[in-house]
């Protein structure tokens, strides 16, 4: 599902049809040396993230979680397609988890772990280009979160009664071996066993739960392509609601009772209903919801305190018990399901395409629900002393991917675009962009070229001032 792969394969197919390549992949592979896949995926902000030489297609993750020791006993089966003749390849896998067994297509493979996150695997035989292969890894231990000095806490995070995985921009590698790049999306299934009483939520659709003795096993299947930064795992004593929105979308929400004031008996129902209402409003603005289910999770995690647009079901992590997330916050994280989740930045420098749209979703929500208009939000931000005018929105720098400029200033950029092309074109564009790029990746250049099709005006000066130049643009 990596964009580079399909492009490379289609070029190979085109060459084959005009006779420049041997007709079969095997014959082609036979003439080429087997070489190691790259240890990175070409993201200059995070050169170690992701890997080259293969396209991950599916992750099947099995976990047994022990709340006493906080340890997991786990298996990961990764199905991937080789995009070159592979003598060796890497996964990202960080922290103290210990591997007890690793096989490639059922044969024991040798492996080493180097640097902060590289799991380097040498299969018994090379994997020919085009071949789909399977890697099984058995591992265990207590997963550790990452506390990045600039980007904060991510990865597997212990909560008061369980754990939650929040992995933007990195963090999935703290609990499973992964090709940890935004541009190698894959499908997932999860089989998680916990002591009876605990509940487990993940991305996608529930596929049954089964109690045997003192344990319950939960299964989830995530059938739509998912970037590793958006993979969800939440374990705790949740109050779960499984309903449908007014438009019929399945809506599974969970409230950690410790995240709301004691005695709030309606929190689980209120949260479910608020999520449904926001999602149905967003479907009117952005088009059909891109995934088979939606929802959200309210959880107490005192060392986190942020929300994340984990695919299908965002996590709202609270530092202390308090009010449920506001409709505005719901609109931000659920807006990301179109902008960030279904359409994902190819590399992290393009994150304004996530956060600008999520911020603008908040402004549109207010505008259409009796609050401030988007123009008023723009004017407030333009005047405010706290708006961040440093740096370039389209290239904020590794340590600044969560700075205000990729939120507020990026939202302001979209408002300027709306003023330039008019409401009719703008609201057509915000439906067409996620529809045409569904489950794919995006870049700033692709977006600006796309927007240009909606007007005869030359948009280059607007984007030059708002995306590519540091400092406060003149109006
Ligand atoms: Zn956001």
From TrEMBL:
Peptidase M1 membrane alanine aminopeptidase domain segment(s): 327-466
Cofactor(s) listed: Zn(2+)
Reaction(s) catalysed by this chain's protein: Release of an N-terminal amino acid, Xaa-|-Yaa- from a peptide, amide or arylamide. Xaa is preferably Ala, but may be most amino acids including Pro (slow action). When a terminal hydrophobic residue is followed by a prolyl residue, the two may be released as an intact Xaa-Pro dipeptide
Enzyme class: hydrolase
GO terms under biological process: proteolysis
Record keyword Signal present: yes
GO MF terms, alphabetically ordered: alanyl aminopeptidase activity; metallopeptidase activity; zinc ion binding
Keywords, ordered alphabetically: Hydrolase, Metal-binding, Metalloprotease, Protease, Signal, Zinc
Domain of life, per lineage: Bacteria
EC number from the UniProt entry: 3.4.11.2
Keyword Metal-binding: yes
Signal peptide: 1-27
Family indicated by similarity: Belongs to the peptidase M1 family.
Protein name (record): Aminopeptidase N
Organism (species): Actinoallomurus iriomotensis
Lineage: Bacteria, Bacillati, Actinomycetota, Actinomycetes, Streptosporangiales
